[in-house]
Amino acid sequence: MAIIDKPAASAPATAGVDEIVIRCPADGRIAGTVPVTDAAGVAAVATRLRTAQPEWEALGPQGRARHLLTWLDWILDNETRILELVQSESGKSSGDTKIETMVATEVINYYAKNAAKFLAPRTVKAHNVAGKTKRLRLHYRPYELVGQIFPWNYPLGMPLMDVPPALMAGAVVLSKPSEVTPLAWTEVVRGFNEEIGAPPVLACVNGRGETGAAVVDVVDMIQFTGSTATGRRIAMRAAERLIPVGLELGGKDAMVVLADANIDRAVGGAVWGGLFNAGQSCIAVERIYVEEPAYDAFVEKLTEKVAALRTGMDEMDSFSSDVGALATEQQLAIVEGQVEDALAKGARVLTGGRRTGEGLIYEPTVLVDVDHTMTCMQEETFGPTLPVMRVKNEQEAIRLANDSPYGLNGSVWTADSAHGEQVATQLETGGVSVNNTMATIFQFPLPFGGWKTSGIGSRFGGADGLLKYCRRQSVTTERMNLGSEIHWYPYTQKRGKLQVRLVRLLGANDWRRRFGKKGRS
Asked: pLDDT-based confidence at 129, cuts 50/70/90?
């Protein structure tokens, strides 16, 4: 496996200061190293990016799209090598790894195709007669330098949800991947800067929390995806600097299975939606509520399907494993702690429930007899567990699903899709899938974001996913160039009375009110 021993060309680290050693969580071997960029280095990178921004914006959407599509070609041409980096730093199964470049393809194509339409100046209709003397236009101008900080669960997919729309908006991007999984993204940014002939408008800096804090301190807008606790700190610093912030934070996504649901499909959705990427997805199924008539059949089939899953990190393209490793010892400890807490409070494990012998791998686990006193039903797990709770009816399922500080995503399962949508609109989440799971994030025309402590704003999707990186600029142009305006200096009694009369006539509708009074007399 290649060792990444230098950051992207646009982000040199301070020589001899520090480096991060990345180990594969599936077997402990060294996957690579990256040097740390300190605060001074971050500031220097930011300065260089700002220099390139005006020319990048001037290219226009079509010019910028050409560079991004060339970058996509480079990613796909080097896909095997890049995905090997993803797998070595994350410990994923090969099947879970493959989705990373699928995200790159979809997001880059979507915004390259639609950016010109999203960014086009918009003519706004005047709201009154006086306004008809003016042309009203709304323009979109990018925040010059956008900062983006990514989590470790999708080393390539997460950055490629955020970077393309920001670049297509005309911003330059200063990115920081997680120190847990920086290898693939560092290499992909190197390719952008060194191999496709693109302007120097994208940089990657590596480091720990101090490097991330330095990024927040030098940019004009920040997008962060990660834990709620870190998101709060970033939001407070952004508030101090008076810069906008986008946050996609924790989740505790609920799956509501109604009595008439197709049980086989619901079970399949629960297994994939809860255990894909070893459960390390922001919108993974983390708790399941099943109406009583369907509960026994659902649990029986769920347990059988989960017990048959294969664990471990397999060879790329072998597809001989389903569920890979957890990313860190800390994450594995959270999963173990939640299962132990549930068992101590009366829950039962039907399959799984323990760490395997090698690496950071935890057996896919089904928990039953759970309730909301247990941390597995209240706190984010981010691991391969499926706690299932029996509910009396739909109303109880909705109430329990909403009994959470999180509100990122969820799903409803029923034979009646129209009724499923009615139930979906009662869930307090930014997105809901009916008879599917984790589906909303792949529908790029829709905004994706969370409610409550799951975030602020839409992370990406649709026009909002690009325009969030823009400042709105209102332009008013006179249709007729008069010598003066009635409300300009000098004030005179005659002009003042005329102005009042016009406002009363056109704005307060005096003629209508007077006519109405006569009609009633």
From this structure: confident
Instruction: Give the whole-angstrom CA distance, residue 36 versus residue 371.
Output: 44
Asked if residues 150 and 162 have their Cβ atoms less than 8 Å apart, the reply is yes
Q: At what angle do helices 79-90 and 183-194 cross, to 10 degrees?
A: 150
Q: Are 132 and 478 contacting, i.e. CB atoms less than 8 angstroms apart?
A: no
Q: Hey, what are 207's tokens?
A: 């480091």
Strand 245-248 and strand 221-225: the pairing is: parallel
Residue 447 near residue 466, CB atoms below 8 Å: no
Whether the per-residue pLDDT at 353 is higher than 70: the answer is yes
Q: Which of 248, 286, 363, 394 is catalytic?
A: 248
What's the pLDDT score for residue 4?
34
248 is catalytic: yes
Half-sphere exposure of 492 (CA within 13 A, CB side): 6
Contact 356, 329 (CB under 8 A): no
Average pLDDT value over all residues in the chain = 93
19-249+463-471 CATH: 3.40.605.10
- Locate the DSSP E strands across 244-284: 245-248, 253-257
CB 297 within 8 A of CB 349: no
- The domain ranges of the chain are 19-249+463-471, 253-444, 489-521
CA–CA dist 24, 313 (Å, integer)? 10
Half-sphere exposure (CA, 13 Å, Cβ side) for 284? 22
User: For the residues of 386-443, what is the DSSP string, one character each?
Assistant: EEEEEESSHHHHHHHHT-SSEES-EEEE-S-HHHHHHHHTTS-SS--EESSSS-GGG-
Active site residue 340: no
CB of 425 closer than 8 Å to CB of 412: no
Which fold is adopted by the domain 253-444? Aldehyde Dehydrogenase; Chain A, domain 2 (3.40.309)
Q: Which of 24, 204, 282, 376 is catalytic?
A: 282
Dihedral sign (CA 228, 178, 246, 71): negative
